[in-house]
Amino acid sequence: MTAGEAHWRAWGQRAGRADAALHPIAGAPNYRKALNALWQPHSRALPPGLSASACYAAAQGYAAGYGQASGLGAADWVLLPTERTIAAVVCAMNEEATIAGVLRELQRLPLDELYVIVNGSRDRTLERVRQCPDAIVAYYPEALGHDVGRAIGAKLSSADIVLFVDGDFVVPAERLAPFITAVSNGMDVALNNITPYLPPFSRWDQVTTMKRFLNVTMGRPELKANSLTAVPHALSRAAIERIGYRELMVPPKAQVRAMLGGLQIGAPAGVNVIAANRQRGTNRGRLNPVSRLIIGDHAEAIELAMAERGERVSFPDTMRQRKMIRKGEGACR
To answer: Where is the Glycosyltransferase 2-like domain (predicted)?
Structure first.
């Protein structure tokens, strides 16, 4: 921790201790939301341009100070600079080893809704999820298929901001917070920035190449290989309504819908899901079943883009003036 971060953490601690005496939250139905609401005036009082790490240190100090003075175990809660409602959607299939840790990290955030879509599990995943008092569980004995759970969770939710994670690896709450904050600040689609974790281009696999190709085709080369296929990511309520629940089952197609709809899309933070991704029988090898599915999803997305924008999508036809053929046909009549 730098000297500046230590200063703002101490500032937050003092504010938290003072608020514990003035504004007790013992009777609140949701302690994390109540504490996050108390934090908002202090968050707005932080100097403009203060670094994200210093802002986080101040929020961390506030939670610790309030917890110390009130007796609440709030020291590890992650407070956010937003008053908007927040939901998290977790998809889980045979994740008994990790799901409890995933939910623990999500419970550190000031969530209004927590949905867990358990499908096709043959282990104790459902039992583990039911031990989480905050979880709203949608259980399907059969496997739903890739990304269907996300669409179901989005439809169940009503929050302003929806965070999507998977149940197969634990992401610390601090690493999830930037996606929520970005949407709160006006972004509609907050993608996971996986670019720093990719190998050199010569070693990219077909899936990564397709992700990059789709973004370039849509005139968004700055998004590089970042895609809605990778979690964590977050969506605004406006994005979910504009894209449509069904389209979320095919993430590249949903991404194209977002671009066609003029939504604000960015990649505010990165989580290394490449290293963390759990190896299964269906995602091993260069052209495994999951890879083929994702490549097919991108082909669907490109087909949609061509249907909406024409066969060249965002690329001008500089070599051949094909429109002259149509004019010539008219002149010969």
So the answer is: 89-214
pLDDT > 90: percent of the chain = 83
φ and ψ of 167, to 5 deg: -90, 5
Which of 61-75, 77-91, 266-280 shows the lowest mean pLDDT across its residues?
Answer: 266-280
**What per-residue confidence (pLDDT) applies to 321?**
67
C-alpha to C-alpha distance for 84 and 230, rounded to whole angstroms:
24
At residue 183, what are phi and psi to the nearest 5 degrees? -70, -40
Q: What are phi and psi of 332, to 5 degrees?
A: -85, -10
DSSP-assigned states of every residue in 11-43: HHHHHHHHHHHHS--TT-S-HHHHHHHHHHHHH
CA 11 to centroid of chain Cα atoms? 30
**Sign (positive or negative) of CA dihedral 326, 328, 330, 333:** negative
User: What single-letter amino acid sits at 218?
Assistant: M
pLDDT per residue as tens digits for the range 296-332? 999 999 998 888 777 667 656 666 666 666 665 555 5
Domains and CATH numbers, the chain: 3-70 (no CATH), 86-308 (3.90.550.10)
Are 195 and 121 in contact, with CB atoms under 8 Å apart?
no
